[in-house]
Amino acid sequence: MDKMFSLEGKSFLVAGGTRGIGRAISIQFARAGAKVIANYVRDERSARALKEEADRENLALSLCRADLTSAKGLAHLDEFIGANVESLSGLVFCAATGVHRAFKDLNARHFDWTFSLNVKAFFELTKLLLPRFRVPAAIVALSSQGAQQAIPRYSLVGASKGALESLVRHLAVELAPKGVRVNILSPGPVRTGAWEAMPDSEARLAGAEKRSPLGRLTSPEEAAWAAQFLCSDAAQGIVGHTLVVDGGLRLVGE
Predict the structure, then answer these.
(1) How far apart are alpha carbons 83 and 81 in whole angstroms?
(2) What CATH number is given for 2-243 in this structure?
């Protein structure tokens, strides 16, 4: 039964895979036996730290710096994948950005910036990688509570995550007959560097921790374990599903 959850012999691209939840997924997949390509675009320090940890554990993890919002970046990533793996077993899309402001302070540039990575890059990357998948394959897109619920100063990010989830559901139906399962992973609040850009982040995290039935925040490792499950043979019957990993927080509301 343990073999059903193993990623031994599989290869994955983790987009946005060197920080926060993406980092946890990259290292967990490699520990589970997969060959991992962790994509990033700016933070060299975090990327090097991840690679050093993987090397200490003798894990099969490589880094590829590529801007997923540009044709040049996507072409470079495609070339890197072709040079490093024979095929891919799946994609975990953790790349995300956003502007946290009241609606009155947002403009079209903020909209384009947010949707360019959070939605369009997923669309472009999936189209690019489909010929490289070895079926059965799995795609997991990282979402958030803001896709379903209104959160202060989160309108653009939340809207982009809602669009991402809708796209995943349509792809799930279209790609399942071709041997590619597509699902959504929606963690609860996880204390990562992404919260530094959020207004009142400490108060929000403290409130979430207090309301949580578990009495704590979701850990990056818990999100990574869930992603591993969705990409494993154990989840072969799960298609177009949103897996919420939040310790029951969404059951109790605000």
Answers:
(1) 5
(2) 3.40.50.720
